[in-house]
Amino acid sequence: MKQSTISRPKWIALVVFIVFIVLIQLVISYSHSIETWYSSGLYPFIANTLRILLGWLPFSVGDIGYMITILVFAFGIVRFFRKMFKRKLSWKRSGYNFFRIVLFLAIVYVVFYSFWGLNYYRKGIAFQLNIERKPYTTDELMDLTKSLAEQTSQYRKSISSNSEYHLDKSELFGLAKTAYDSVQQTYGFLQFKHKSTKASLFGVLGNYLGYTGYYNPFSGEAQINMKTPDVVLPAVVCHEMAHQLGYATEDEANFVGYLAASHSHNKVFLYSIYLDLYRYAASELFVRDSSKYILVKQSLDTLVKKDLKDIRDYKVINVIYGQYLKANNQPQGIDTYSDVISLLMAYRRKYGKI
């Protein structure tokens, strides 16, 4: 006979996890403490441990975990409605199942924030670099976009053939790790140990789920959608590795990815990251002043324009992921990616370069 009575230990477990949830909600208001004690203290230990345990495996443990979870939930839902339709489901049993779901969600919530999620509330890269985000004028944005367009075109011209774009997994992930090893010489807090970057098992399905890559906080793996256009992949890998370092918000992961990729000696990595930044800057310039945007766009190398068209033709659905970002201290959702421009402006003001 199946259990339908909630035992005392399970009630205690639920209460304990609810207490942890309350504590998490209290802690997120203290960004300086999170930066000091969690993001620069406890989190690196957690992340490195996960990467040591799972990084050596050639497949994505996180993807498999998500697949199993989805299948179990789907099976449970189908079973629930079948029993309800046949009127074989008692109120007592329904209450027990509801309790199990609540306990499971509470555990997931606590583990998520303990393993990574608190990084959404850290002081972040601007604090570490001692740069300040400030409002900027359209002329300043125009100047930045022109500079990015020039560098993007320059790096594109250095690539002799499209075949150079295509990097196999090991080469792509290895070059990204080398880029982080290089940037660490300038910014020691970007030290990256124990690579754990995997090709996502979801493949083309990832295009419809709305991601080019994602970080799995439960396994510590950076998952890369290898069905993404080749020219985008280096920027994506550096972005996801930034998430692994604890830069949770999309704008910070973009910026840290830029810092790493711009220290690479590989021309495809350099082109990929500057093309990525150009797209964000150009999109904002178009919204502010479309005539200025057209002037900059006309200056692009012909092959850059072709690459941009190929990227536009690559379709992803961002609705679900946008809602996830809004739930985690990023109210602009998917638009948060373009906030990297304010960080780039602040960095340029301080160092006079990008």
Give the spatial strand order of the biggest sheet.
1-3-2
Query: What percentage of amino acids are in beta strands?
Result: under 5%
* DSSP summary: helix tally: 15
Shape: globular
Largest sheet: 3 strands, mixed
How many domains, in number, for the residues? 2
Helicity level: 55-70%
Q: What is the tally of beta strands? A: 3
* SSE run: HHHHHHHEHEEHHHHHHH
Distance between the termini: 67 Å
How big is the Rg? 23 Å
The low-confidence runs, each spanning 5 or more residues with pLDDT under 50, are 317-322, 332-337
Name the structural class.
Answer: mainly alpha
Average pLDDT confidence is 88
Keywords: Membrane, Transmembrane, Transmembrane helix
Protein name: DUF3810 domain-containing protein
Pfam family, one: DUF3810
Organism: Pseudopedobacter saltans
Descriptive notes:
- Pfam families: DUF3810.
- The chain crosses the membrane at residues 12-32, 52-78, 98-118.
- The chain has 354 residues and is mainly alpha-helical.
- The protein folds into 2 domains: 8-121, no CATH class; 127-351, no CATH class.
- Helix content is 64%, strand content 3%.
- It has helices at residues 8-27, 31-54, 61-85, 91-115, 125-129, 138-157, 169-183, 205-209, 233-244, 250-261, 267-288, 290-298, 302-313, 319-326, 340-351, and strands at 197-199, 213-216, 221-224.
- Strands 1-3-2 form a 3-stranded mixed β-sheet.
- The longest helix has 25 residues, at 61-85.
- The radius of gyration is 23 Å and the shape is globular.
- Mean pLDDT is 88; it is low at 317-322 and 332-337.
